[in-house]
Design brief:
The complex is a heterodimer of chains A (about 140) and B (about 250). Chain A is α+β, with helices and mostly antiparallel strands and about 140 residues long. Helix content of chain A is about 30%, strand content about 35%. Chain A is elongated. Classes of the chains: A alpha+beta (about 140), B alpha+beta (about 250). The interface of A and B includes residues 40, 41 and 51 of A.
Chain lengths: ~140, ~250
Amino acid sequence: SISKRRHQNRNRSTQPQEASKSLSMADYNSSDQKTACKKHELYVSFRELGWQDWIIAPEGYAANYCDGECSFPLNAHMNATNHAIVQTLVHLMNPENVPKPCCAPTKLNAISVLYFDDNSNVILKKYKNMVVRACGCH
Amino acid sequence: GNSEVQSNFIQRRLRISEKREMQKEILSILGLPQRPRPHVSHSKFNSAPLFMLDLYNTISEEEEVPNPHRFVLATEGPPLASAQDSAFLSDADMVMSFVSLAEHDMEISLQRRHFRAFKFNLSQIPDGEAMTASELRIYKECTSQVYENGTFLLSIYQVVQEHQDRDADLFLLESRTLWTAEEGWLEFDITATSNLWVMSPHHNMGLQISVETSSGRSLRPEEAGLVGRSGALEKQPFMVAFFKVSEAHVRSTR
């Protein structure tokens, strides 16, 4: 169906093409772009939690979080899994019953935490998947 | 970053109960049932925390994550972590240091044999952690006393059986010849012994070290420059163990 449409467009005057272009540009510049799925800053402060007496380091860490819309077309402005693209198309066909893909982390990093236990022994532990490095649509 | 995003985000302070819930959730992520309550009035500046901080900073550099809170305590002096520690560290998921619970210098008067005893509590090691390496670390200062050849022999033993009426049964773990002028951290591999202690805690009767000259005369450890409990805080002996996670951490439903 896409190739048919392309063929039809070629035969039309330039006016609708221009309209289409301006529409797509408007999509990217509109509030959709502002609410698009992306990484947001979120700092977890161990100090604010009142834990500086047992956590030696760090004082906190930038955990971050993902938030925003996963709207068509996904590939244009964000990381998206192959399935998320299909999910978007199915959502477009059946918006009432099929949800949009979720905005979620695509890359996660580890952090290391240094802390005292009850016996004043010191523990250095690596925690996987604690920091969001990149977000995308799943 | 984005002021608009920030204004949409936290718009109120958490209530006390909510803050407690938040603390519980983060403790759960850290795999802790409750927050530890250590007694650390001055022990923050002991050798073990400083050593661990050294490892922490090494990891932070390797992870290449911008670390605005790079921690530097009183780390002046000889480097704590060795190349071997860095190798252990790259393979480890967890590192744990243990302070000696009982450290005492004793002399068996009949033989005039001096020794120093150490005891470590390994009961707090979390489940699912497999120990890959462990070492006893003792700081040696330069001594002005002159012994035969300028060297002496340091031996480290595992206490196998204790007796009330006679000397403990010992198992020799390592002997090392040291120069009197030598200064720095001595590392002794005690991986096999500490694995035995983890598997059967009733075998954990501690370690003993003894020092003698090349002619076999027993020396007090401090005569050989070995720093003990009475020495500088940043040179206190301690044990460090490296672990690999052997099973996935499953968070329980709350």
